[in-house]
Amino acid sequence: MDDLRQKYLSAIANAADEAAIEEVRVNALGKKGEISLRMRELGGMSAEERMTAGPALNALKDEINSALAARKAGLADAALDARLRGEWLDVTLPGRNRRQGTIHPISQVTEEVTAIFADMGFAVAEGPQIDSDWYNFDALNIPGHHPARAEMDTFYMHRAPGDNRPPHVLRTHTSPVQIRTMEAQGAPIRIIAPGRVYRADYDQTHTPMFHQVEGLAIDKDISMANLKWCLEEFVKAYFEVDNVDLRFRASHFPFTEPSAEVDIRCSWEDGTLKVGEGDSWLEILGSGMVHPKVLQNAGVDPTQWQGFAFGMGIDRIAMLKYGIPDLRAFFDSDLRWLRHYGFASLDVPTLHGGLSR
Length: 357
Ligand code: PHE
What we know:
This protein is α+β, with helices and mostly antiparallel strands. The chain is 41% helix and 22% strand. The protein is built from twelve helices and twelve strands.
């Protein structure tokens, strides 16, 4: 009996997994197990022999059963411990995305434009998107009756009935930042002002919200020639080409005199735009010499100072450079579009490191 006990208890202790435990159980207590057979032999024993062998066998059976159960539980605990150790995870870590987000083409182009003009000594200025009609219109030499107000499809802010103060508007262009910057800094000035602007318009090349970048250079002797040089340098750097043809076309803006709209030489081949060659021209900006009345309205003495200004459509030049056909898709927040046209989030555009590569 002691040998049996010894044999099975050590077999149980050495069983390395559930299958081994089961094997021990079958060998000892299964139908044809060694202990089961012994118990069957009880029938052939004398009553006296049975009196001692019976309880001893039963006790042995119980002992082995509980040893089996204990070993089983021990193995299960060890397996769970191993699994917990193997599958350990720090739930306080931030989530890991399968794919990084991208930089929107508008942000990318704004960065590119900023890098190029920063290299020419232009600082970045900003103004509010909701502005008074003084800053958006009057100060820029656009009086109340001027047709430019109607042409701009202005969004007017709501006013309480009976409130007769001049209205605020969603700025229709970035030109009010000219006034605010001159008021705040005086001359000389060299700034660009990128930002959102609003006009009630919607088709393939117009959205009610879009982006402009204003440029303003004021000093004692700034001329139209400086404007031309700056814009040519900008366009070459921005489109990453050595040669560009710009066409300065006489135009009219109430806040510049003289005024010019600027077209860029380009060609369309198979629906893709090539800048710098071809027989087509594409308008990219409005510009001119800042009107003396505008300087005066902003507290800058027009007998001392003069300069140029320009206003360029950021969305427009983004579409041109990156071949994006429909402006409306810029603001749809469609992930497929963003992944296709977006830029790597860690590639900061610089002139030395490359703007778009
Ligand atoms: N503000 C003009 C527009 O939105 C552009 C412009 C800016 C023209 C500065 C001349 C000078 O169309």
